[in-house]
UniProtKB/TrEMBL annotation:
Primary gene name: phnK
Keyword ATP-binding: yes
UniProt KW Amino-acid biosynthesis keyword: no
This protein's name: Phosphonate C-P lyase system protein PhnK
Record-stated family: Belongs to the ABC transporter superfamily.
Species this chain originates from: Hansschlegelia quercus
Alphabetized SUPFAM superfamilies for the sequence: P-loop containing nucleoside triphosphate hydrolases
Amino acid sequence: MTDEPLLRARGLTKHYGERIGCADVSFDLYEGEVLAIVGESGSGKSTLLGLLANELPATAGEVLYRMRDGIVRDIASLSEPERRLLARTDWGYVRQDSREGLRMRVSAGANVGERLMALGERRYAGIRETALTWLDRVEIARNRIDDRPTDFSGGMRQRLQIARNLVTNPRLVFMDEPTSGLDVSVQARLLDLVRGLVADLGLAIVIVTHDLAVARLLSHRIVVMRRGRVVETGLTDQVLDDPRDAYSQLLVSSVLAA
Ligand SMILES: Nc1ncnc2c1ncn2[C@@H]1O[C@H](COP(=O)(O)OP(=O)(O)OP(=O)(O)O)[C@@H](O)[C@H]1O
């Protein structure tokens, strides 16, 4: 273990032509820490997540990541193979739309095994055994291993995405509104599962959500965005119970009033 941050965002800025996606965002993320990015629609949450996950090029600023070998790299300087390897091993990305995060035409088992195969694992029996273990962990019945995600409910698909991402023991997982569109009870089950995995595996998570209840339940720290800028950041309970910034106060109170 080390006290060094796992990831550092420094002055991250993204312009879409004249439009500002996000501007001058800086923070540190530590191992095992869950950071929620909240804000209303259009505040820049998805843009920031895209920059952090190296899926969008920044207009200015940088993301520094401490790789598994301990060396801190600017993610924009990674070669294409290095970038792909990082995205497949030490990082995960759980998408709002499971059709973007899963391969819908292959079985649940193949969805989970794919990243292992990409890392060179060729023993079919071993891959299947690991996939079964992960189906257990995300509470999908073992006899569904040969079924396709198209036959799964929304909640099961999100749990399968989680298994698919965690099979390589990533240290950092990005999540983009993972519970939106799910029924309340299904959401609660998913959040419970994620909480358990965070505790067991010491995962760091950056989660984008417009739902402050999700942020409250999962995150240690929170970043409040408005018009592409961070207006407030701090410990989740502190920000949600006693927001300093006028906009955060509005955001919190409008949810409370809802
Ligand atoms: N591809 C794009 N081209 C042009 N402008 C964009 C693009 N993507 C985002 N924007 C603009 O950047 C700003 C931030 O958008 P972003 O999608 O990051 O916000 P958000 O908080 O994730 O919103 P939502 O919750 O609706 O997804 C908005 O003004 C948006 O219109």
